[in-house]
Amino acid sequence: MAGVTYDTGALIAGDRNDRRMWALHVGFIAEEVVPAVPAPVVAETWRGGSRQASLARMLAGCDIEEMTADQARRVGELAGRADHEDVVDVAVVEGATRRDDDVILTSNESHIRKVIKATGSASASRTSESRVLSGGQPLRRASRRVS
User: Fold this and answer.
1) CA-CA distance, 125 to 121, in Å (whole number)?
2) pLDDT tens digits, residue range 85-134?
3) CATH fold of the domain at 4-145
4) 33, 116, 129, 134: which has the fewest C-beta neighbours closer than 10 Å?
5) Euclidean distance between CA atoms 102 and 143, whole angstroms
């Protein structure tokens, strides 16, 4: 597996101690796949305090990707092409596409697919469904690119 990117729904599930999310997270780590989390995803999820100990523990096993000025421009351009205002969704797709990640775990499958389509990338557009976090609820399927 080339890589995995967590969107906000994945972090919310981890914060709520969703067993399936934690099983996936531990599995990725066991396979030496360090999940990437774009900084805007952390900002959308993090509220601080001891109530988010599970989230802090999950993030400790992730690579939190800072947003550079160049990346911010690419995210803005992609948001325009996708006609999508949620820059967190767009940052997730931009990063996953740039890193050639295999999996995006999200609670916003339709939004993520809309942005993926706007990338124009053939590899990003070839998707199959295996596991996707739906609506912050327990894990049911995931959006996975197939090479």
Assistant:
1) 6
2) 999 999 999 999 999 888 899 988 889 989 998 988 655 544 333 333 44
3) Rossmann fold (3.40.50)
4) 129
5) 9
Query: What are the DSSP calls for 85-122, one per residue?
Result: --HHHHHHHHHHHHHT-SEEE-S-HHHHHHHHHHH--H
What is the SS3 assignment for 26? helix
Does the model's pTM come out above 0.85? Answer: no
pLDDT tens digit string along 1-58?
678 999 999 999 999 999 999 999 999 999 999 999 999 999 999 998 888 999 999 9
Structural domain spans, the chain: 4-145
Contact between 5 and 38 under an 8 Å Cβ cutoff? The reply is yes
pLDDT recorded at residue 122: 54
Structural contact between residues 145 and 102, judged by C-beta atoms closer than 8 angstroms: yes
Q: Which spans in the chain are helix H?
A: 8-15, 19-30, 39-45, 53-60, 69-82, 87-99, 109-119, 122-125
Give the separation between CA 48 and CA 40, rounded to whole angstroms. Answer: 15
